[in-house]
Design a protein that fits this description.
Blueprint lengths: L10 E10 L5 E4 L1 H11 L4 E7 L4 E7 L2 H14 L21 H8 L4 E7 L2 E2 L5 E7 L5 E10 L1
Antiparallel strand pairs: 1-8, 2-7, 3-5, 3-8, 4-7, 5-6
């Protein structure tokens, strides 16, 4: 298979998405916002990286089916329940912080970022795939970094 050489130089573009979450283990579908940024980037072929800027929020790709999201919520709760004793919770919190070791433990099971090929100006997502920011802590403002590299 012959791989065509890009006819124009590669460029790098980045942006951020601001999200206000409403609570613990909320799945916020950010797919359309990422697609809008890609369209405005004018990158036709390359790579997209979507990354959480937080240690208690994750980026995942899955189906946007409400019952599945409920199951995943329950799964995370079983693996790292909020009411367990954690050494991290004994560390003094700052003025706007709460004990959240369970959120950090859940985050270790998930991804901080996801990468996607861009081909023909389209993000390569499967039929049912959606991009989610997963809030693992409590209601707050979150930032997602989106970067595109290509031509």
């Amino acid at each position: 298979m012959e791989i065509p050489v890009a006819s124009r130089p590669a460029s790098f573009q980045s942006a951020t998405i601001s999200v206000r979450t409403r609570g613990t283990r909320e799945f916020v579908d950010i797919t359309e916002r990422v697609l809008d940024l890609l369209e405005r980037s004018e990158i036709t072929n390359g790579l997209a990286v979507v990354a959480s800027m937080h240690t208690t929020a994750a980026i995942v790709v899955n189906e946007h089916e409400p019952e599945l999201l409920k199951d995943f919520y329950g799964f995370l709760t079983i693996l790292a329940p909020e009411n367990e004793e954690y050494a991290h919770n004994a560390v003094p919190c700052g003025p706007e912080e709460v004990p959240n070791a369970h959120s950090h433990c859940q985050a270790l099971l998930l991804n901080t970022s996801e990468s996607f090929p861009i081909i023909g100006g389209r993000l390569q997502l499967g039929r049912y795939q959606r991009i989610f920011l997963v809030e693992l802590d409590h209601e707050r403002s979150r930032t997602v970094s989106v970067a595109f590299l290509g031509s």
